[in-house]
C-alpha cells in the first residue's frame, strides 16, 4: 500500500514538472495571429470560389479581390495555376500601398477536365510567407462525345494490360 502511494505521488510529481516545462516552452513561441512585422499582408475577400456545375468545354472566370492590410507596399511578382487550364491575371510588380487593393482574375478552361475539379493559384509576393494561395473548384459535366472516346481508350488500355 505504501509503495503504491509512493508511485502515485511520484507520477503526480513527474506530471507536474513536465506540464510546467511545456508551459515554459510554449510561452517562448510567438502567437502567429499577432503580426509584429513591417511586411505587407495580402488579405483576400475570399480564398475559395466554387463555380458549381459547368459543362466540359466551358471557360469560366472569377475575381479575387485583395487588400494590403500590412505596413509596407505589397508587390506581386508571380501567380501560377496548378495546371495549364487555370490562368491568373494579376498586377505584376505594381506596388500596392498599405490600405490599397488589387484584383486577381482567375480563368478555368474545363476542356478535357471532366468531373470534380479543384485547382490552386499560388501567388508569389513580398509577404512574410512569400506565398499566398487561392482555390477554385467546379463540377464539370462530361461532354458525351469526349467521354465516349475516353471510355474507349480506357477499355483498350485495360484490354492491352490483360493480354500482357
- In percent terms, what proportion of residues is strand? 35-45%
Q: CATH superfamily assignment of one domain?
A: Immunoglobulins
CATH top-level class of one domain: Mainly Beta
Structural class: alpha+beta
User: Which residue ranges are poorly predicted, with pLDDT under 50 across at least 5 consecutive positions?
Assistant: 9-35
Termini distance? Answer: 72 Å
CATH topology of one domain: Immunoglobulin-like
**How would you sum up the global shape?**
elongated
Biggest sheet: strand arrangement: 1-3-6-5
Oligomer classification: single chain
Total beta strands: 8
The CATH architecture of one domain: Sandwich
Radius of gyration: 26 Å
Largest sheet: 4 strands, antiparallel
The SSE string, one letter per element, is: HEEEEEEEEH
Q: Give the overall pLDDT as a whole number.
A: 85
Number of helices: 2
Helical amount among residues, as a percent range?
25-40%
Structural description of this entry:
This protein is an alpha+beta fold. The protein has a domain at 44-145: Immunoglobulin-like (Sandwich). The protein contains two helices and eight strands, in the order αββββββββα. The protein has helices at 2-27, 144-163; strands spanning 42-44, 48-55, 59-68, 76-81, 86-89, 101-109, 115-125, 131-141. A four-stranded antiparallel sheet has the order 1-3-6-5, with no helix packed on it. A four-stranded mixed sheet has the order 2-8-7-4, with no helix packed on it. Strand 7 (115-125) and strand 8 (131-141) form a beta hairpin. It is elongated, with a radius of gyration of 26 Å.
Amino acid at each position: 500500500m505504501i509503495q503504491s502511494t509512493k508511485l502515485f505521488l511520484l507520477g503526480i510529481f513527474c506530471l507536474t514538472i513536465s506540464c510546467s516545462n511545456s508551459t515554459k516552452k510554449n510561452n517562448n513561441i510567438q502567437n502567429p495571429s499577432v503580426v509584429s512585422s513591417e511586411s505587407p499582408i495580402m488579405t483576400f475577400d475570399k480564398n475559395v470560389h466554387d463555380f458549381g456545375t459547368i459543362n466540359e468545354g466551358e471557360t469560366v472566370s472569377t475575381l479575387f479581390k485583395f487588400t494590403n492590410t500590412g505596413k509596407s507596399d505589397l508587390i506581386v511578382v508571380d501567380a501560377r495555376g496548378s495546371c495549364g487550364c487555370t490562368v491568373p491575371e494579376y498586377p505584376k510588380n505594381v506596388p500596392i500601398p498599405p490600405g490599397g487593393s488589387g484584383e486577381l482574375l482567375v480563368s478555368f478552361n474545363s476542356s478535357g477536365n471532366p468531373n470534380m475539379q479543384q485547382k490552386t493559384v499560388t501567388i508569389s509576393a513580398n509577404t512574410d510567407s512569400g506565398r499566398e494561395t487561392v482555390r477554385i473548384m467546379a463540377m464539370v459535366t462530361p461532354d458525351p462525345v469526349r467521354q465516349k472516346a475516353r471510355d474507349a481508350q480506357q477499355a483498350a488500355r485495360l484490354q492491352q494490360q490483360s493480354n500482357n
